[in-house]
Each structure stands twice: as C-alpha cells, then as structure tokens.
Amino acid sequence: MFKNYYHHPWIRKIRSLSRKSGLLSLIKPYLAKTEKSYEGAFHLALKSAVGAGDTVWDVGANVGLYTNYFLDWVGPDGTVVAFEPLPRAFQILT
C-alpha cells in the first residue's frame, strides 16, 4: 500500500484539483503535514526559514506545491521566483 499518505493518488488528485480551482487555501489544513513524518519536519523547517516580505527562489518548482506555500508565507510584500525546466510541469505551475 502507500507508505506515504501524501503520495496516495486521491490526495494528489484533490491537491491538484483544488490548486487549479483556487481552493487550495481552504483544504490545506486538512492536508497538513504532521511533525512526526520526514515531510512534516521538512515543511516546518522551511516555514520557519521563510518570513513575511522575504524573497524566495524555488528552483525546480515542479508543479508548485511549495511555491504556493511560499506565496502564502511571504505575503503581499514578498517575492517568489519559481523556475521549472520541464515543459509539462511548467505548464501546470503557471
């Protein structure tokens, strides 16, 4: 089965659909990562390193999962620069 809850096909589909529809901020709390997992610890470490008004470079942004988090964390006074070389991922990212 799926060792990681966040790689389950339904969770990925829900995240994708919510991102495309602009509802990601509404479901983020329900998909929140826990501190006990590696990904949860990574997420919390990133969040503690990024503050309001910061500039973040997301190199290899893929489809923008963390790009969306960075946008929330830097707020309206911050800047997020996202790079993605793969055309299909870039299309989803934009």
Poorly predicted regions: 1-5
Strand order of the largest sheet: 1-2
Give the integer mean of the pLDDT values. Answer: 79
Number of strands: 2
List the helices and strands in order.
Answer: HHHEHEH
From the N-terminal CA to the C-terminal CA, the straight-line distance is: 32 Å
Outline the biggest β-sheet. 2 strands, parallel
Report the C-alpha radius of gyration, rounded: 14 Å
Structural class comes to mainly alpha
Q: Quickly count the helices.
A: 5
Portion of residues in beta strands equals 5-15%
Helical content (DSSP H or I, runs of 4+) = 40-55%
Q: In one word, what is the shape?
A: globular
Keywords:
mainly alpha; 49% helix; globular; 5 helices; 11% strand; 2 strands; two-stranded parallel sheet; 94 residues
Question: Could you characterize what this model shows?
Answer:
This protein has 94 residues and is mainly alpha-helical. Helix content is 49%, strand content 11%. The chain has helices at 9-21, 24-27, 38-49, 65-74, 87-93, and strands at residues 55-59, 79-83. The protein has a two-stranded parallel ribbon with strand order 1-2.
Secondary-structure map:
Layout: H1 9-21, H2 24-27, H3 38-49, E1 55-59, H4 65-74, E2 79-83, H5 87-93
Parallel strand pairs: 1-2
